[in-house]
C-alpha cells in the first residue's frame, strides 16, 4: 500500500503524466472478484439464447431452454469447466416443452425445472404460463414429470426459485395478467408430491417478477 500511495502522490505532483486509468495491484489477492473472459469454444453446439436457466453440477454448467429470437428452446447443453467444451445432452424420457422465464435448481443429483412461458412466439399462438415440474436425473440423463395431489401454484413465469431443507421454494412471478407475491413449497424427497402454500408473515414483498433469489444461513432473499 505504501508503494501505491507513493505512485499516486508522484503522479499528482506531475499532472501532465497522470494516467486517468490508475491500476492497483493487490498482490496475492488480485484474482479475487476478478472477471476473466473464457477462451472461445469453437465446437459450441447450442444456439445463442436468452431467458434460459443455468445450474452447476459437479464440474459442469447445464443450460436449459430459453429463446433464440425465433422460437423457444427445450434443449439441454453442458459446459465442462475443466475441458472448456460444450456438449449437447441426449436424454431419456419426455423433456419439458420449449419455454423461457422458467426456473431451474439443483437438489442432490437432479435438476428441477418449474413453470415458465411456452408457445409459438412468432405465430403468437398457444402462449401460456405453466406450473409443471420436471426432474432431470444427471446420472441417468432421464427426464421425469412430477404428478401432484391437492392444490397447486397458479401457472407462472419470471418467478423466483430456491432449494432449502430438501424442499423447492417458489415465490412470486407473472401469471399472464398480473404480478404475484405468493410462496409455495414442495418436498423433493419421498413419494408425497404435494404442494403447500406458505403463510408468509412480517412485511411481505410487493408483487414482482424477474428477480434473483438466494439462500443464506436459512434465509431466502430476493432482490
Write up this protein.
It is a single chain. By secondary structure, the protein is mainly β. It has one domain (2-222): 6 Propeller (Neuraminidase). The protein is built from 1 helix and 14 strands. The protein has one helix at residues 2-13, and strands spanning 53-57, 60-67, 72-80, 85-88, 103-107, 110-120, 125-137, 142-145, 160-164, 167-174, 179-187, 195-197, 213-216, 219-222. The strands form 4 sheets. A 4-stranded antiparallel beta sheet has the order 1-2-3-4, with no helix packed on it. The longest helix has 12 residues, at 2-13. The chain is globular. The chain starts with a helix and ends with a strand. Residues 1-26 have low confidence and may be disordered.
Amino acid at each position: 500500500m505504501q508503494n501505491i500511495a507513493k505512485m499516486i502522490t508522484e503522479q499528482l505532483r506531475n499532472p501532465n503524466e497522470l494516467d486517468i486509468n490508475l491500476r492497483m495491484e493487490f498482490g496475492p489477492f488480485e484474482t479475487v472478484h476478478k472477471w476473466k473472459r473464457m477462451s472461445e469454444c469453437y465446437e459450441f453446439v447450442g444456439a445463442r439464447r436468452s431467458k434460459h436457466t443455468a445450474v452447476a453440477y459437479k464440474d459442469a454448467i447445464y443450460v436449459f431452454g430459453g429463446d433464440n429470437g425465433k422460437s423457444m428452446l427445450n434443449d439441454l447443453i453442458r459446459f465442462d469447466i475443466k475441458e472448456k467444451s460444450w456438449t449437447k445432452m441426449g436424454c431419456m424420457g419426455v423433456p419439458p416443452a420449449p419455454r423461457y422465464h422458467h426456473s431451474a435448481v439443483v437438489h442432490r443429483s437432479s435438476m428441477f425445472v418449474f413453470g415458465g412461458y411456452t408457445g409459438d412466439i412468432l405465430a403468437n399462438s398457444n402462449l401460456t404460463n405453466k406450473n409443471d415440474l420436471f426432474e432431470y436425473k444427471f446420472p441417468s440423463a432421464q427426464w421425469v414429470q412430477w404428478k401432484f395431489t391437492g392444490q397447486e401454484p397458479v401457472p407462472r413465469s419470471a418467478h423466483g426459485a430456491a432449494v432449502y431443507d430438501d424442499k423447492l421454494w417458489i415465490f412470486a412471478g407473472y401469471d399472464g395478467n398480473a404480478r404475484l407475491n405468493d410462496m409455495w413449497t414442495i418436498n423433493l424427497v419421498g413419494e408425497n408430491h404435494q404442494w403447500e402454500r406458505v403463510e408468509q408473515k412480517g412485511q411481505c414483498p410487493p408483487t414482482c417478477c424477474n428477480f434473483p433469489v438466494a439462500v443464506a444461513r436459512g434465509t431466502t432473499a430476493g432482490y
